[in-house]
Amino acid sequence: MSQGVRGVVFDLDGLLVESEEYWEQARREFVSRYGGTWGDDAQQAVMGANTRQWSRYIREAFDIPLTEEEIAAAVIARMQELYHDHLPLLPGAIPAVRALADRYPLAVASSSPPVLIRFVLAEMGVAECFQSVTSSDEVAHGKPAPDVYHLACERLGVAPEQAVAFEDSTAGIAAALAAGLRVIAVPNRSYPPDPDVLRRADLTLPSLEEFDPAVLEQW
């Protein structure tokens, strides 16, 4: 293991699986039941938010006559159905995880609830590659706040400056940078990150297929 990099933290949605479109579909379907229309502004408003934050947003923005817990449960259940029907793996995701698992302790730092994170990792066949799983639901503030990355590094037993994050979104890149990690950005094509935030990443790749683990050895 290199002296510089002691751990690696992966985002999930939009990085390992192309799930942002699933989240949008699940929320759009839910809101439409109550006469609402889920648009681009709503999708951007909840990017990076944890479950408490996005369920509160839905209840308040669309005047849903349910508790935040009931809203979250309905949307998460729909996500599990979508994942069960088809897991939208992104190119290079599994090889990148397996290559790095041979060299470093790995963690996940995701805005998804823990049940969905573990479900996806199991379906990918890489659950055993990760030392820890951290959800924004476990911290006070979701991305772009650094909370989830601080907790992920703590669980790995590494200082943030000794860790590298893989991220795809504006909120995710900003969160990892704010926590003090180096960042490898793999921009989401459907929901591209803000160019000013993307420029702050240490490395930008068009796809995980282009990732060479030797880069981290050089760091």
UniProtKB/TrEMBL annotation:
Gene3D superfamilies the UniProt entry points to: HAD superfamily/HAD-like, Putative phosphatase, domain 2
GO MF annotations, alphabetized: hydrolase activity
Pfam families: Hydrolase
Record keywords: Hydrolase
Key word Transmembrane present: no
Family matches, as InterPro entries: HAD-like_sf, HAD-SF_hydro_IA, HAD_sf, PGP-like_dom2
Keyword Ribonucleoprotein (UniProt): no
Origin superkingdom: Bacteria
Protein name: HAD-superfamily hydrolase, subfamily IA, variant 3
Organism this protein belongs to: Sphaerobacter thermophilus (strain ATCC 49802 / DSM 20745 / KCCM 41009 / NCIMB 13125 / S 6022)
